[in-house]
Amino acid sequence: MSRALPGAATGSDREIDRRILEVFRSNEGVVSGARLSRLLAISRTAVWKHINTLKSLGYVIEAVPSQGYRLVSVPDLLTSAELSAGLPLQRIGTRITCLQEVDSTNLVAYRLAEQGAVEGTIVIADHQTGGKGRLGRRWESPAGVNLYCSVILRPQILPLYAPQLTFVSSVAVVDAILRTTNLQPVIKWPNDVLVNGQKVAGLLNEMSAETERVDFLVLGIGVNINMNREQFPVDLRHPATSLAIEAGRKIDRLQFARVLLESLDALYAAYLAEGYEPLRRRWLAHSAVMGRTVRVTSGENVVVGVVEGIDEHGGLVLSCAGGRHERVLAGDVAICNEGEACS
Hints:
The chain is α+β, with helices and mostly antiparallel strands. Helix content is about 30%, strand content about 25%. The chain has 9 helices and 15 strands. An 8-stranded mixed beta sheet has the order 1-4-5-6-10-9-8-7, sandwiched between helices. A hairpin with a 2-residue loop joins strand 11 and strand 12 (about 300-310). The mean pLDDT is about 85. It is an enzyme of class 6 (ligase). It comes from Geotalea uraniireducens.
């Protein structure tokens, strides 16, 4: 079940809204109705209707008598028009579906992908009632404070290389945090982004594939942006936080989401053009576990060793006691502090 945002419109209407916002962004001060009408090839009445639609979504737009319109402020609401306005996106984010409430953005995106949605389509929700993390765990998803999004990709790769795409997501999230805050995020294998040792983002890949090809991948990204302490459940398996808590200030969700889209698009384009190795190096540069002694638990199986890197299938490569090497494809990682027994 999903609910659209207030003021949801047709694709052509959303495109006009997006272009109006682009005009406002590229012009300081007042923009005349006549100019908007000319640039958009619509009537002055249609311009007025679209301005009112944007107002209904929370945009503060001032009508200046005999001059035109001035954009005063934008809402803390993630809309497709605002997210993509002015961004030179090649693939990821060229189609955006923004919903008020969903069970899970991954479920919505998966259904869209099955129906033939093009590569780069993104589903974003303000609230999830059934957000999920790795291994079927629940992802707390309150309204109005965080980013919950899923991206549809159709890479021409073998299914065994699909885990590489999780690293596109994690590096993009790190890049967005670095560019919008003064925080220093790190990545904990396989799919967590941490700030000050606490989780701020989780990533989840889901795939539809045949033996020799990937039909599509859905990259799920959840980032705790403006949650406060009271909004975290008391039964969390691992310490969690939000960017706002760690930065000591509210974070602009729209700015963060736009930077993330830009980074995802650029990283995916680089991956397609240059392959996995440059992406692997970037992931390792931000790794919380590289060179550290870790304990990896998967069911009853426990492996302890020093992290040497990640392989071409996304596996964690460990140097263990006795000089043997272990390759771990799944599990929960705990970093062993110096002097701590880690067995």
